[in-house]
Amino acid sequence: MDMLEKQAARKMYEKTHRLPPKVQQELSDYIEFLLRKYQTDVQEKPFFGCMKGTVTWMSDDFNDPLDDFKEYM
Length: 73
Fold this sequence. Notes:
Strand content: under 5%
Order of helices and strands: HH
Largest sheet: none
């Protein structure tokens, strides 16, 4: 952390602790929201096979033609 980051962090700390506890909690919740919104490095992109094992049951007639589309066949 460089000098400017330390100064900014200190100012943020001082300002935050002058707020009432309820507002501090709101600020904390908002910061968590922003972290989730802008943290792209934590989100993993889907990869081939990542859903393997999630479908545990499938109807026996899954591949059969649907009655609704008979007129198109």
